[in-house]
Design goal:
Elements (H helix, E strand, L loop, with lengths): L5 H20 L2 H24 L21 H7 L11 H34 L13 H32 L6 H8 L5 H27 L2 H16 L3
Helix pairs in contact: 1-8, 2-3, 2-7, 4-5, 5-7
Length: 236
């Protein structure tokens, strides 16, 4: 790299490592989105089962027997959620909630960090105005920043939506006794769970769309970096 222009050397560094960093965020949020959609399908299946559950009915007396009125085969197959007559909340429900919380916290942290980084980068990009050979790529460079900034906001919003979905799920007593009390009375829990799944679905869409924005920058980074390499290398 050129010892005569520290700014170009710094830009070249950014165009390498930040581009490689973005390759991860063009893929990972979509993997998270798929997992969230699976969890949403699990809760939808359970809520649908509970919404149509007949009132009352005899249940097996064996503690580890599956609860005939509460289980759904889709939820069992997707996430292993099994209600048993021993009376506790299925361990799988807590695991799912922990996974959702982890994605929420990661999304919030990543979004807030990236938004702050893009605000700084946006201001610093004016230094490129003094390089005529980059004039035709200033739009591309600013598009990269704008897309990353928008992706950051979408990631942070997804995190907030997921935390609110967890707030809703926290209103549900997932023990067989608690569920049956609600289902034999007001039947509020199925509606609450359905509402939570709508939030999970929205968060999944936000994460997937944020990854798409980052992915679209790949060619822009490649073209911009090549021009900076040419400037740093100088005439052949």
């Amino acid at each position: 790299m050129s010892p005569d222009d520290p700014l170009l050397d710094a830009v070249l560094n950014l165009s390498r490592f930040h581009r490689e960093h973005e390759e991860f965020y063009a893929e990972h949020p979509r993997e998270q989105a798929v997992a969230l959609q699976r969890h949403s399908r699990t809760f939808k299946a359970l809520a649908g089962r509970w919404a149509t559950r007949p009132h009352g009915g005899e249940q097996p007396a064996v503690p580890y027997a599956g609860s005939e009125d509460l289980n759904d085969p889709v939820a069992l197959q997707l996430d292993g959620v099994l209600f048993m007559e021993e009376g506790g909340e299925p361990a799988e429900v807590r695991r799912i909630e922990d996974e959702i919380r982890s994605v929420a916290e990661q999304s919030l942290a990543a979004g807030e960090w990236l938004a702050a980084a893009m605000e700084t980068t946006w201001a610093a990009a004016t230094a490129l105005f003094g390089y005529p050979p980059l004039a035709d790529l200033l739009g591309e460079r600013h598009r990269i920043i704008a897309d990353d900034w928008q992706a950051a906001d979408m990631s942070a919003l997804a995190g907030r939506v997921l935390l609110r979905a967890l707030d809703l799920l926290g209103l549900v007593d997932f023990t067989p006794e608690g569920l049956r009390q609600d289902l034999d009375g007001p039947r509020v829990f199925p509606s609450v769970v359905f509402s939570a799944t709508e939030m999970l679905d929205r968060a999944a869409d936000l994460l997937s769309d944020s990854a798409g924005l980052v992915h679209e920058n790949e060619r822009r980074w490649r073209v911009f970096r090549q021009r900076v390499v040419e400037l740093v290398s100088g005439p052949a």
